[in-house]
Design goal:
It is a single chain. Strand 7, helix 7 and strand 8 form a beta-alpha-beta unit. Strands 4-5-6-7-8 form a 5-stranded parallel β-sheet. A 3-stranded parallel β-sheet has the order 1-2-3. The chain is globular and about 45 Å long. Helix 8 crosses helix 9. The chain is built from 9 helices and 8 strands. The chain has one domain: TIM Barrel, CATH 3.20.20.140. The protein binds nickel (II) ion (NI).
Length: 250
């Protein structure tokens, strides 16, 4: 099984990262996309991936981190000088910060162009900004590939992102009892466009909701989607592994 969106590089794992990785191996989670989101974590993703071969690093500027960025020459240089498997996470987030929408859009669009230039997939974060995210992405239809990470929109909106050729990444919320729409999305999107994620240390699935999330818990996301679709977990694993390997070239 593959966790296609992990932040095991976060400081909350600094004391027990080896144990976390062992739990992944014990649970047959054998590849992890290690997602950077600012200068520090991009470097950390690359460094940790040299130490642990389970990791595949990415580099990007998260919309909440755009304030420190004047242009994308830093990111372009970083991707040039380091082996990364995706651009991102990047995107739009109007949940906490609404007063810099134009800057967020500019930095997002810059990262879309970088992903095209470097022929890398995009990891797209979108929170309270789904229409703007779609409107920017659709300008690049036919040129982009990537994933709508931790997708939280409607099934109808998911269809529009699928029409752009994107994958849909699902995380812990799909396991929450009251999560009607994520369950509807998980039950209905084409399986050949589904990716499993944790977004750890956040988005912890049931039965560990409220505690720290970690990559080995991706099995709970897999189990929930399998049960929603009346399938075996191993079937979902097989299909989503294939999707992840093909998108990220891992
Ligand atoms: Ni993330």
């Amino acid at each position: 099984m593959i966790d296609t969106h992990s932040h095991l590089l976060d400081d909350v794992f600094k004391d027990d990262l080896d144990e976390c990785i062992q739990r992944c191996k014990d649970n047959n989670v054998n590849k992890i996309i290690l997602v950077g989101f600012d200068r520090i974590t991009n470097s950390k993703a690359v460094e940790l991936s040299k130490k642990y071969d389970i990791f595949y690093p990415t580099a990007g500027i998260h919309p909440e981190e755009v304030k420190d960025i004047n242009d994308l020459s830093y990111l372009s240089d970083f991707i040039n000088n380091n082996k990364v498997y995706a651009v991102g996470e990047c995107g739009l987030d109007y949940h906490w910060t609404k007063d810099n929408k134009e800057l967020q859009k500019e930095i997002f669009e810059g990262q879309i162009k970088l992903s095209i230039d470097y022929n890398l997939p995009l990891i797209i974060h979108s929170r309270d900004a789904i229409e703007d995210t779609y409107n920017i992405l659709k300008k690049y239809k036919g040129q982009i590939r990537g994933v709508m990470h931790c997708y939280s929109g409607s099934l109808e909106m998911a269809q529009k992102f699928l029409d752009l050729g994107l994958y849909i990444g699902l995380d812990g919320p799909v396991t929450f009892k009251n999560a009607k729409e994520p369950k509807r999305v998980a039950s209905n999107i084409p399986l050949d466009r589904l990716l499993l994620e944790t977004d750890c240390p956040w988005m912890t699935p049931t039965p560990f909701r409220g505690k720290r999330n970690e990559s080995s818990y991706v099995v709970y996301v897999c189990q929930e989607i399998a049960s929603l679709r009346g399938m075996d977990c191993t079937e979902i694993e097989k299909i989503t592994d294939k999707n992840a390997i093909s998108l990220f070239n891992i």
